[in-house]
Amino acid sequence: MVDLSVIKTPCYLYDLDLLEKTVSVAEREAGRHGFIIHYAIKANHDPVIAGIIRDHGLGSDCVSGNEVRRSIELGFHRNGIVFAGVGKSDEEIQLALGEDILLNCESLEELGIIDEIAGKSGRVARVALRVNPSVEADTHHYITTGTDENKFGISLAHLQSALDKCRDSEFLDFTGLHFHIGSQIISLEPYRRLCERVNQIWQAFNISGYGGRLLNMGGGLGIDYYDPEANSIPDFEAFFEVFAGTLDLPAGIEIHFELGRSLVGQCGRIVTRVLYTKQGVGKKFVITDAGMTELMRPSLYQAVHKIKNISSSGNPETYDVVGPVCESSDVFAKDAILPETGRGDLLQILSCGAYAASMTLNFNLRERAHPVYISEGKISGNAPVKDFRAHE
Ligand SMILES: *Cc1c(COP(=O)(O)O)cnc(C)c1O
């Protein structure tokens, strides 16, 4: 066992063996159907994490120019990099064009700008049209992206104009359609509905006739935040089978996915030390040295993360586990049941491999939490320094 008591806290602790296993399973299950996976690098852009995924030969799905740059620097194949986002700047579009990166275009207005920039630089932009399919994802409303109320994608009402624009421009190479309906989707039903919608759209708009040869179904497969240790690898088999069984497209269409959370979510934890247990009025607070600056999901969308005290085997007690940041929403868990907890105990917040480190906030000028990696029982990364109770 690795001795965590010597690690400087708070830190992100990554289990690289679990990551390897998860990516291998995802690849194997996608491979059965000839599907291609890109890694949504916004879930975690840590170079070691992304490097392992690159080594498996996955592509990268980016939502900013800097993510495109990071992916290129890390050695992701250029033709495996795709770039989505509702607000790409001219500079970001230029970067993508210069590197011949596929652009997932999200509006008629953006298509016009891509056409203009490509024309001026004498290049042909490879584009896929991100379509808003008007499908409910059954997840938190902050992370649904495929309904009429969301800012993402081209609505069906504008798809015909977008296709015509691509056909009429010599600077636009239309490659196919892109969808992404949301994140942390637990039921496979929304994906089934999405597939049925895609079948209709492909036919009704004669996508093959416009030169459509690829379909990108996005990501969003959820993970088990309630019992992460029992379900550390998502059911990729069932996920991909929905698409294989429901999509009904002409032969030869390449089918792509962009998975973020499901690949990396369970391989990371936050290790944090208890600074105080504070007696409130009718409540006890556990105050940790990690806060919303290291994990903002609970404050941003009431996300649930399982918390363990790995130092104590005392009797169970009920606590609100909170961070040190000056915000009332800086709460990791309300009424969590933990063994009796005291100053200096080490807690682990589970399922922090995705949208934790990559969403780090600079608020309160907090020090950056470093990553630490465990592989085959050995620890590496940030030199473990014991800095707690420096006066002792
Ligand atoms: C965030 C995002 C993804 C990945 O979502 P996950 O829920 O992490 O799988 C995929 N595609 C696009 C366009 C995204 O914005």
Summarize the structure in short.
The chain is of the alpha/beta class and 392 residues long. It has ten helices and 18 strands.
Q: Can you offer a commentary on this structure?
A:
There is one protein chain. With 392 residues, the protein is of the alpha/beta class. It folds into two domains: 123 residues, Lyase, Ornithine Decarboxylase, Chain A, domain 1 (Beta Barrel), CATH 2.40.37.10; 228 residues, TIM Barrel (Alpha-Beta Barrel). The protein is built from ten helices and 18 strands. The longest helix has 16 residues. The C terminus is likely disordered. Pyridoxal-5'-phosphate binds next to strand 10 and helix 9. The site of pyridoxal-5'-phosphate (PLP) has 18 residues, from strand 10 and helix 9.
Layout of helices and strands, plus pairs?
Layout: E1 11-15, H1 16-31, E2 36-40, H2 47-55, E3 59-62, H3 65-73, E4 81-83, H4 90-98, E5 102-105, H5 108-121, E6 125-132, E7 154-155, H6 156-168, E8 172-178, H7 189-204, E9 214-216, H8 236-246, E10 254-259, H9 261-264, E11 268-279, E12 284-288, H10 297-301, E13 307-309, E14 316-322, E15 331-339, E16 346-349, E17 370-375, E18 378-381
Parallel strand pairs: 1-17, 2-3, 2-10, 3-4, 4-5, 5-6, 6-7, 6-8, 8-9, 9-10, 12-14
Antiparallel strand pairs: 1-11, 11-12, 11-16, 13-16, 14-15, 17-18
- Helical proportion, percent range: 25-40%
> If helices are DSSP runs of H or I spanning 4 or more residues, what is the number of helices?
10
Mean pLDDT: 94
Instruction: Look at the structure and give the CATH class of the largest domain.
Output: Alpha Beta
Largest sheet: 9 strands, mixed
- At CATH level 3, the topology of the largest domain is TIM Barrel
* Corresponding CATH architecture of the largest domain: Alpha-Beta Barrel
Tell me how many strands there are.
18
Q: Could you say which small molecules are bound to this protein?
A: pyridoxal-5'-phosphate
Overall number of domains = 2
Nearest-angstrom radius of gyration?
A: 23 Å
Give the amount of beta strand, in percent.
15-25%
Report the uncertain regions.
387-392
